[in-house]
Amino acid sequence: MTKTNDYEHVFVHFKKVDPIIYEVLLKVDLGKWFERVESRTTGTDYFVALCRAIVGQQLSGKAASAIYKKFEQFFGGEYTPKQILLAADHSVRNIGLSWAKVKYVKDLAQKFQDNEVDFNSLDSLSEDEVIVELTKVKGVGSWTAEMFLMFTLLRQDIFSFGDLGLRKGIIKLYKIEKPSKEQIQKIIAPWSPYKTFGSVALWQCLEQ
């Protein structure tokens, strides 16, 4: 991995505050992350991003991608809230979604269409405010909102206590058999304001 001045400060920070996660972070290609930050615009389709997040809930990455591909194909590639609302429930179910997820994407489409969730202001909201807005949608809990903050809004200081992979990463790297929330909080607190990168490193360590 080639480091550049664009994100050298992230490595400097972790080397200082947590040498354990720093060693893993050295193997993560942060260049791709910062390329996404530079290319991202406020016009990112948040509706589509949330649909994809709902479709992929509680599935492996491979299974989530396969079902979402079918979901896109069903709607002809690009899709709108109106298209989802007009689609028959059983037809959406036959794509491979559970009945619960059918209700969730329909609720998302309805709230988007009715402006019940302020999607246009998400960029300007704090992390806590984004979570409050997104969890107004049925089926969108804290974990989904936190993944949205990380991978759609590209916020740099996010850690999801509800993510099993992050918990497993803590167990593996820090040799704590059953870490409590307080123990995890003590480990990750020094990572701020770059907890997202620490999270990415924890997921990475599970693949090593």
Main traits of this protein?
mainly alpha; Endonuclease III, domain 1; 208 residues; 13 helices; Endonuclease Iii, domain 2; 0% strand; 2 domains
Notes on the protein architecture:
This protein has 208 residues and is mainly alpha-helical. The chain has two domains: 8-40 and 158-205, Orthogonal Bundle (Endonuclease Iii, domain 2); 46-151, Endonuclease III, domain 1 (Orthogonal Bundle), CATH 1.10.340. It has helices at 8-17, 19-25, 30-39, 46-55, 61-74, 81-86, 89-93, 99-113, 127-134, 142-151, 164-174, 181-188, 195-205. Helix 1 (8-17) runs antiparallel to helix 2 and helix 4 (46-55) runs antiparallel to helix 8. The longest helix has 15 residues, at 99-113. The radius of gyration is 18 Å and the shape is elongated.
DSSP helical segment count: 13
How much helicity do the residues have?
55-70%
The CATH C-level name of the largest domain is: Mainly Alpha
Structural shape? elongated
**CATH third-level topology of the largest domain:** Endonuclease III, domain 1
Q: Look at the structure and give the mean pLDDT.
A: 89
Q: Mind summarizing the main beta sheet?
A: none
CATH superfamily of the largest domain: Hypothetical protein, domain 2
Short recap of the structure:
The protein is built from 13 helices and no strands. It has 208 residues and is mainly α. Helix 1 packs antiparallel against helix 2, helix 2 packs across helix 13 and helix 4 packs antiparallel against helix 8.
Q: What's the topology here?
A:
Blueprint: H1 8-17, H2 19-25, H3 30-39, H4 46-55, H5 61-74, H6 81-86, H7 89-93, H8 99-113, H9 127-134, H10 142-151, H11 164-174, H12 181-188, H13 195-205
Helix pairs in contact: 1-2, 2-13, 4-8, 9-10, 11-13
